[in-house]
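Hi R.,

Here's the chain you asked about this morning:
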Amino acid sequence: MECLKAAEKFAAYGLSATVADARFAKPLDTDLVRRLAQNHEVLLTVEEGSIGGFGAHVLHFASWDGLLDRGLKIRTLILPDRFIDQDTPERMYEIAGLDAQAIVAAGLSALGRERDAAAVIA
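And the predicted structure, written out as tokens:
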């Protein structure tokens, strides 16, 4: 849901976004990752997991397949390595940096739009 909200927010910055539900980490849908990489300047992976999960798998494939050689930027958004107190799902996503605003900020930052990224979080 947060990814869909983020896609709508990207439009306010004149950016289009594709939301792809990978549904599982293994086996990685390499055709999907390759198509997304060929048609986008930035790939953002968002997961409710920790370091070494789906995002790392995508990053490893992109590196091995040469997708990064053409300037593709990848940001992996994951749960932070700390305890998050129980709260509403929306508040927990916000605390974890996995809410729509954090996703948009990561994308804008990857594009070098630091000022816009900072304004999203503020």
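Residues 43 and 74 are 5 Å apart (CA to CA).

Let me know if you need anything else.
M.
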